[in-house]
Amino acid sequence: MSSNGQYILETQDLTKEFKGFTAVDTVNLKVKRHQIHALIGPNGAGKTTVFNLLTKFLTPTRGKITFNGEDITYAHSAEIARKGVIRSFQISAVFPHMTARENVRVALQQKLGTSFHFWRSVKTLDALNERAEELLKMVGLERFANDEVADMSYGRKRALEIATTLAMEPELMLLDEPTQGMGREDVDLVTDLIRKVSENRTILMVEHNLGVVSKLCDTITVLQRGAVLTEGDYATVSSDPRVKEAYMGKAA
After folding, report:
1. Cα Rg for the chain, rounded, in angstroms?
2. Which pLDDT tens digit goes with each residue over 110-156?
3. Which of 82, 83, 127, 128 has the greatest number of C-beta atoms within 10 Å?
């Protein structure tokens, strides 16, 4: 493991081509353990493609991905999930016609490998209730445990999605646009939540909201046209004239 295990995830010259178009161009990422690391950049910069490569929804054209020093370049998505790399999706990935508690229990079942044993007695599921309640409390949803998800606000749905992600006991959480489409109040709620759940975990996030990035992230990697433009803390990248031209000028 490189640097005495300092880096939980690394990519070496990660490249993805689609019929002559280079979507990800020799990207070298080093994600430090127990940090919050952001990928930012204008639309089309390759951020989601990088996420899809890391979570094995796509296979790299070239390059290497290591997690905890182990080569996972050609591992399957279920395999890396078992290793502790869990992705929270850009579109809220919860069951709308189940309660918040039921959603967390389903995620807990997946972790236990009992997700296909719905024929078992309800008592089997009840055994998961205590952990489900803990997770709901962690994300501030304990009062909404019995609420149907369809009736919950967008911010609470995203909080629930983070609870279901935590149920999988991730060592590395990948958050894809966690505050997209939110009003100010929900953005603040989810930002505080990410800070809270980051304790003793590593988070890699794609995020457009620069206010969120400035508050949360230890390291920021800026992508442009599939390649790394620059990297550093918020003060460093936000003062880079190339970043202002490529990204922040467009966001203003």
Report:
1. 19
2. 777 655 555 555 666 677 888 999 999 999 999 999 999 999 988 89
3. 128
